[in-house]
Design a protein that fits this description.
Strand order of the largest sheet: 2-8-5-6
Structural class: alpha+beta
Strand content: 15-25%
Distance between the termini: 12 Å
Shape: globular
Length: 425
């Protein structure tokens, strides 16, 4: 930073005296989870905010949770992770994220001037910005970042044309992603509303009765959930189709892991990283680890984490588009490849709907970690084909890809320009 200053750059702190904005920390709040039928608030954990389409981890009681109002981010707030192993990543709160109560384990950075806000957002995501953010971290076991640490980071202003281009690209990316989130959320709601199948009657804790002679090879209760049976039957009556009839499902086998620097390998994602617009702690793997063709993601392919907790993110799908074509996914990720002529967007809406999610999760099994297997997935019954909504959903994922490209280019260009200015001085 001092070298940039000597080269003529203006350095301004993120917050504090002469700062660009204000950093608001959130004090610990009492979280009370909502009972069935109680007025509730959708809650996001810190790492949920980085997903393409964040989904609430829990529902909080509106009357029982104290101080929740301060945890709902305003549009334009920059959310900064401040504790944990993944210290450093940050997200921009758009109109979609502002629907949620966001964990108090995130700092809130508010910058009134729009140009400064988008420029700071880009700078803090560069390798230089990330290094400056984390250099003052504290903690013996879990890393921590204080409001003062974030506020003390110096932001360089050294090229007006570069600043304008960075702001334009970051704003375009945020706006594009925001619109895609809003539209995709609407499409899923519309799709679910037209899918036949009853809602659950009564409390899950009340259980149900099942004949022992009908248990077959599965003794776990979720597999025999009468709601899942009702959904399957309703989809069949409406003209639904089996997954195995419209898609190929598979999981590649295990492999030796030879991780390398980015220039020597390809990016490989886990089921959790699949969901993130900018995968956190992305790793790269060498070609000697395995045949890349077997593990590559493809245009129009669905993918989801096939191992984890059935009540959490297992089976939550993403639709692969241009920006991640030829990326790799590990051997814990289910691939769903549409057969010729099958609309990938429709297939995504199917797997994103609660009716299909319920079937997939009921198929999962495991004594410690739940897992979904391709053979079981093939028998899941999907709702009837909807080409129009499928095309609209596919376009949303293409917009996600374009937003990622714009952000990545803006951040890389800013980092390269800073390094070039240092070398030139």
């Amino acid at each position: 930073m001092q070298t940039l200053a000597l080269a003529g750059a203006e350095l301004r702190p993120v917050a504090g005296d002469a700062g660009l904005g204000q950093v608001g920390s959130t004090s610990r709040t009492r979280r009370v989870y909502a009972a069935q039928g109680e007025e509730s608030l959708p809650y996001l954990r810190p790492y949920d905010v980085f997903d393409y389409l964040p989904q609430p981890a829990d529902q909080l009681s509106k009357s029982g949770s104290i101080g929740w109002e301060g945890l709902v981010p305003n549009e334009g707030t920059i959310l900064q992770t401040c504790s944990g192993r993944n210290l450093g990543p940050l997200a921009y709160a758009d109109s979609y994220l502002s629907r949620f109560v966001v964990s108090d384990d995130m700092l809130r950075l508010n910058i009134d001037a729009e140009e400064d806000r988008f420029y700071v957002f880009a700078f803090l995501r560069t390798p230089t910005g990330q290094a400056l953010l984390t250099r003052s971290k504290t903690g013996n076991v879990i890393d921590h970042l204080s409001p003062d640490d974030l506020g003390a980071v110096l932001v360089p202003f050294f090229d007006d044309a570069l600043q304008s281009q960075t702001v334009a690209d970051m704003k375009h990316a945020v706006t594009l992603r925001e619109a895609a989130r809003e539209r995709l959320d609407e499409l899923i709601d519309e799709f679910e509303s037209r899918v036949p199948g009853p809602a659950r009657d009564g409390r899950l804790a009340d259980g149900w009765t099942h004949q022992a002679s009908a248990l077959g090879g599965r003794l776990d209760a979720a597999f025999h959930d009468p709601l899942v049976t009702s959904v399957r039957n309703a989809n069949n009556v409406a003209g639904g189709v089996r997954v195995g009839d419209v898609a190929e499902t598979f999981i590649p086998g295990r492999y030796k892991r030879y991780y390398v620097e980015p220039e020597h390998g390809k990016p490989i994602v886990s089921g959790r990283q699949l969901l993130q617009t900018q995968p956190i702690n992305l790793r790269y793997i060498a070609a000697r680890s395995f045949d890349f063709n077997r593990y590559s993601l493809e245009e129009g392919m669905l993918a989801f984490g096939a191992e984890g907790r059935a009540e959490d993110r297992i089976s939550q799908p993403v639709l692969t588009t241009g920006d991640r074509t030829d990326w790799l996914a590990n051997n814990h990720v289910m691939r769903v490849r549409p057969r010729a002529g099958v609309n990938p967007g429709w297939l995504y809406l199917c797997f994103a709907s609660w009716q299909v999610q319920a079937q997939v999760k009921a198929q999962s099994c495991g004594s410690v970690v739940d897992a979904v297997y391709p053979g079981d997935l093939d028998d899941v019954i999907l709702p009837p084909i909807d080409e129009v909504r499928g095309d609209a959903a596919y376009q949303c994922w293409k917009d996600f890809a374009e937003a990622n490209r714009l952000e990545a280019n803006a951040i890389d260009r800013l980092e390269s320009s800073m390094l070039a200015s240092v070398e030139a001085s």
